[in-house]
Amino acid sequence: MTGTGPAVERADSPVIGYRATRSATATRTDTPVRDSPQSINIVPRTVITDQQDLRLTDAITNVSNVTPSSTVQGRSQNYVIRGFATQLFAVDGVLTNPAINFYPVERDLANAERVEVIKGPASVLFGRGDPGGLVNIVTRRPTVEPTVDASLQGGSFGFRRFQGSVSSALPDIDGLAARLSFAAQEDPTFRNFGDNTNRRVFVAPAVNWTPSADTRVYINSEFTNQHSQYDEGLVAFRGRVPLDNIRRYYGEPFSRYYGEFNAITMRAEHDVSENLTLRQVVSGQWGVFNQFVARANGINNAGTLVTRRDQTVDSRFAAVDTQTEAVLKFETLGLSHTVLAGFEYSNGFRHPYSQQGSLAAVSFSNPVFGALPGALGFQADLKQRLELFGFYLQDQIALTPELQLVLGARFDLGTQYYFNRVPGSKTQPPEQQLFGASPRVGLIYRPFEPLTLYASYATSFAPQTANLLNVANPPPETSEQVEIGARIDINPDLTLSAAAFRITRDNVAGNDPVNTGYSVITGQQRSEGVEADLAGAILPGWKVIGGVGYLDAQMTKDRIFPVGNRLVGVPAFSGSVWTTYDFLEGPLRGLGLGIGVTHVGSRTGDLNNSYRVGAYNRVDAAVYYDFDAHWRLSVNMRNLTNARYIEQPTSQFINTPGAPFSVLATITARL
Questions:
Q1: Quick one: which H or E segment has residue 532?
Q2: Over the stretch 391-426, which tens digit does the pLDDT of each residue have?
Q3: Centroid of chain to Cα 151
Q4: How far apart are the first and last CA of the chain?
Q5: CATH number at residue 158
Q6: Per the structure, how many domains does the chain have?
């Protein structure tokens, strides 16, 4: 179904086709992508719609060197970017809660206009962050013109979903428009959960007010609640994960999870003049999650029995984030400057309380439900508070028409209180004083049109949020990246980009090899590699998006794990390509065909490299038909060859199998 976008693309506007040309993620100013000093890849809503992506992970695996990581036991989504796992992402430039260590629900894409991935450290603008990169979801803005779209979906394994969006100007107030995006789905999945199913409801009201040509106010809110089966997947034994039965489940039907995430963000901008814009952002986030689950925690030497425990966790969290910024444009000494100056304040907390007990073991090859939960006893009581003040400055300098220099620096200071009370713990620690300096420098050179070359150095800073046993106030993570890259427009609608990089990460947390459920500080890790991405239209009606990458990601310093071990879940080679062809004329006009291939190489499942999961190739396809400008029928097929594979290895007892062949039918109406 063809959408209509603005005559001139903006960083927050819809994208026509598969290639975006502008973004604010890398600079926080509306800047052409080719003027970014770091690699940035954008997945427009058109791609999400054609592929019928239901997970954030599915959308960003269109990007090179991005692969799925843990599902957090079926509760949320993580991903590996340039060799480093992260669950952190931003919505309209605001990061999720600074204190939580995972997003407590699966992020719905019903209100996503585009999903952007900036590769490498991004702390100069976003503060706390992971070294591999940052995902930023740009939401759908309200429109003055009335629009309605709705989709009804049904698919394999009992999947069903309804989503929609309504947008229009509101009466009586000039310049006021609103949008309501929503989605509800039920997903029993292919896994053997008994009669249980996964459910999620997502509602996102948004208001946009433009009282005058120089003033803009945007309020976006999101409310999600999720009931899902707690699912750790398959168990590794003797160096491998058996795939003879991907439905095999080592939990119990009572293993249920509830998560709730809410957020309201207000963004106000005022153009004082054509050269000065003031911006204020205020965001509040809050929520809860709780679970009562069965967890695998051991396997006997013969590989016949999996030992288990039952566990409850009750957690609540909240945060506030404010950003005060000014964007100033001026010229001096013949040089053009775009200066961003900002102050950010973040304050968040989380408080999970957990209990555990014993639970009967089950067969490794044929687990059977029916174990009764054991008596619960105290396990841990974690309290974390994090308060940060960030000051940042960036200058985009046009030295010549062909040469640009980007300079930036950020300073974060604040306090963190982190105390995980476990049996035997006594003294509560004092607050930890935090300080992080995050410089960035980038050089952009266009020797001739349409080629752009760039080089950059960037850093990141992140307070620890991992669950460490008997460690008070662990040191923050730091990282740095060196990157060189190029972008070239093969034709006016098709762009090829490539980059080579090296990232070094210090004080990183990894899974504790002795104490299940905890983490340890593992020293230093390094990832270096190369990548290439292609996005746009090859010919009228023929669109493509995809990328390939190579990574060498390993331990470089450590006192626990062997130096040289590969990082968890990181393939040496990975890549994907998705292409569609729309018949624009003749008797087949309205018909569209799509096909895609995803390759992920073999990966290690833990930092000990005690086991590996195999490489996989997945083939997907789509057929859709636009009856007219208002109706589309589509059928998406995933894993056409019915390949068996592990999508996400996390640890010996947590390995998520990929779904078998599945079909999803969608009917979409747009008014």
A1: strand 524-539
A2: 999 999 999 999 999 999 999 999 988 888 888 776
A3: 24
A4: 12
A5: 2.40.170.20
A6: 1
What span, in angstroms and rounded, lies between the C-alpha atoms of 174 and 215?
Answer: 13
Q: What is the pLDDT of residues 200-246, one digit of tens each?
A: 999 999 999 999 999 999 999 999 999 999 999 999 999 999 999 99
User: Locate tokens 């502008």: which residue?
Assistant: 22
At 430, the amino acid letter reads P
Structural contact between residues 159 and 198, judged by C-beta atoms closer than 8 angstroms: no
Confidence of residue 470 (pLDDT cuts 50, 70, 90): low
**Per this entry, what is the length of the chain?**
671
Within the chain, what is the greatest distance between any pair of CA atoms? 78
Residue 670's alpha-carbon distances to 4, 7, 133, 148, in angstroms, are 12, 21, 35, 6
Tokens of 162: 């309804």
Provide the sign of the torsion angle of the four alpha carbons 514, 515, 521, 524, taken in this order: positive
Residue of 637 and 76 predicted with greater confidence: 637
Cβ contacts of 518 within 8 Å, gap of 6 or more: 467, 468, 469, 512
For 429-445, b where at least 16 C-beta lie within 10 A, e where not — what string? eeebebebebebebbbb
Tell me, yes or no, whether 423 lies in a domain: yes
**Calpha distance 606→603 (Å, rounded):** 9
At residue 36, the pLDDT reads: 92
Burial 189-218 (b: 16+ CB within 10 A, else e): bbbbbeebbbebebbbbbbbbeeeeeebbb
Task: Let me know the angle formed at the C-alpha of 632 by 627 and 633, rounded to the nearest 5 degrees.
Answer: 105
Q: Is the pLDDT of residue 3 over 50?
A: no
Cβ-based neighbours of 9, under 8 Å, separated by 6 or more: 15, 16, 20, 21, 22
Q: Write down the pLDDT at residue 461.
A: 84
Percent above pLDDT 90 for the chain? 80
Sorting pLDDT into bands at 50, 70 and 90, what band is 565?
very high
In a domain, 8, yes or no: no
Is residue 9 a part of any domain in this protein? no
| Mean pLDDT score, 48-76 | 93
pTM for this prediction: 0.93
Instruction: Assess if residue 482 is contained within a domain.
Output: yes
Listed in sequence order, the residues at least 6 apart from 529 whose beta carbon sits closer than 8 Å to its beta carbon are 65, 82, 83, 500, 501, 549, 550, 551, 552, 553
Whether 478 contacts 461, CB under 8 Å: yes
Look at residue 39 and tell me whether its pLDDT is greater than 90: yes
Cβ-Cβ contacts under 8 Å for 62 (sequence gap 6 or more):
41, 43, 47, 51, 545, 546, 547, 576, 578
Average pLDDT, the chain: 92
Looking at residue 472, its pLDDT comes to 65
Helix (H) or strand (E) run with residue 440 in it: strand 432-448
Looking at residues 293-311, what average pLDDT do you find? 94
Tokens matching residue 238: 């003797």
What does DSSP say about strands 133-139 and 89-91: parallel, antiparallel, or unpaired?
Answer: parallel
Give the domain extent around 211: 22-670
Q: Are 477 and 461 in contact (CB under 8 A)?
A: yes
Residue 362 DSSP symbol = E
Closest listed residue to residue 547, CA positions, set 509, 574, 522: 574
Residue 6: pLDDT band with limits 50, 70, 90 = very low
Residue 460 token pair: 């990141």
pLDDT of residue 362: 96
Pairing of the two strands 305-332 and 524-539: unpaired
Tokens representing 616 are: 């996989």
Query: Is 348 within 8 Å of 315 (Cβ atoms)?
Result: no
Half-sphere exposure for 212 (CA within 13 Å, toward CB): 6
